[in-house]
Amino acid sequence: MHHSGTSVFSIPENETSAVTFILMGFSEFPDLQIPLFLLFLIIYTVTVLGNLGMIAVIRLNPKLHTPMYFFLSHLSFVDFCYSTVVTPKLLENLIVEDRRISFTGCVMQFFFICLFVVTETFMLAVMAYDRFVAVCNPLLYTVAMSPKFCCSLVAASYSWGITCSFVFNHFILVLFFCGTKFINNIACEHDAVVAAACSDPYISQKFMFILATFNELSSLMIILTSYVFIVITVMKMPATGGRYKVFSICASHLFTITIFHSMIISLYCIPTTKSSWLLVKVASVFYEVIIPMLNPFIYSLRNKDVKDAVRKLINSHL
Fold first, then answer.
1. What is the pLDDT of residues 197-222, one digit of tens each?
2. CB burial of residue 202 (10 Å; 0-12, 13-18, 19+)
3. Taking each helix axis from N to C terminus, what angle separates 291-300 and 67-95, rounded to the nearest 10 degrees?
4. In angstroms, what CA-CA distances link 68 with 51, 74, 132, 249?
5. Which residues, 6 or more positions from 119, have their beta carbon under 8 angstroms from its beta carbon?
6. Do 116 and 78 form a contact (C-beta atoms < 8 A)?
C-alpha cells in the first residue's frame, strides 16, 4: 500500500517535467507568418536600438544626470528586457514549423514577463511621483528626490516585481500538467498556461486576479493623484511657455500609461472567455512588443534636453 502511495505522488512530477507546450502564436493565419515576422523584426530592432540608445545618451550626458532621466534609463532597461523575453521566441515561431517550448522554458518566460511588467507598472508610478515633486515642490525637488531616495524607489520596483513573479510562478507550479498542450498566445502568459493545466486552476486564477488588481489599483492611485496635483499646480501658473512645457511632458507620460494599463487590465483583471483569445493576443502584442518600442520615442522626441544630447553626441563623433 505504501509503495503505491509513493508512485502516485511521483507520477505528476515526472509527467509535469515531460510536458511539452506548443506556442500557438499567430499560427491560425498561415499567410501572415512572413509579413508578421518582418513587422515584428523591425519593431524589435527599433526597440533594442531605441532603449539601449536612450540608456547610452543618458549615461554619456552629464546634463541628463537627474532623477527624471535616472528613472527613464531604468524604464528603457525594463522595456528592453521584457521585449527580449518575448519577441525573439515570437519571431522564431513565425518562421519554424516546430513551435514547441519546454515546460521549464515556459515557466522561465512567464517568470521574466511578470518580473518586468510589474516593475514597469511601478516604475511608471515612480516617474509620475517624480514629476509631481518637480512641478508642485520645485524648491524642495533636489532634497526630496535625493540620489539615495531615487535608488530606493527603483530598487523597490524591481523587488516587488521579483516578489510577484515568485508568487505567480508558485501558483502555476502547484498545478498539474500532462502531455502536449497548446498555449494559445504569443508567449507563456498566465491565462494561456493555466488553461493548459490538467488540474483545476481556480485558485491560481483567483490569486492572479487579486494580485494584478492590487498592483493596478495601487500604481494607478499614485499616478492619478500625482497628475491631479500637477494639473492643479499648472493651472495656477501664468499662461507662459512653462505651462506648455509641463503639459507636453505630462501628456506623453499619460499616453504611455493609458495604453500600458488598459492592456494589463484587459489581460489580467478581466476574466478571459474562449471567444476573446484573439483580443488577448493583440493585447499581449501591444504591451509586450509595441509599448517597449514606443516608450523611448514618447519620452525623448517630445523632449528638448534629450534631442540636444543626441545632437551633441552625433556632432562630437563626426
1. 888 888 888 888 899 889 999 999 99
2. exposed
3. 150
4. 16, 10, 11, 11
5. 78, 157, 158, 160, 161
6. yes
Residue 102 phi/psi, 5-degree rounding, is -70, 160
Q: Which is it for strands 100-102 and 20-23: parallel, antiparallel or unpaired?
A: antiparallel
In the chain, domain spans: 2-304
How high is the pLDDT of residue 160? 97
**How far does the chain reach from its first CA to its final CA, in angstroms?**
80
Check: CB of residue 115 under 8 Å from CB of residue 161: yes
CB 123 within 8 A of CB 68: no
In the CATH hierarchy, which fold is given to the domain comprising 2-304?
Rhopdopsin 7-helix transmembrane proteins (1.20.1070)
What is the torsion angle, in degrees rounded to the nearest 10, for the CA atoms of residue 118, residue 121, residue 122 and residue 125? -170
pLDDT digits (tens, 9 = 90+) for 17-57: 578 899 888 888 888 899 999 999 999 999 999 999 999 98
Closest Cα partner for 310 from 25, 57, 37? Answer: 57
User: Residue 209: how many CA atoms within 13 Å on its side-chain side?
Assistant: 11
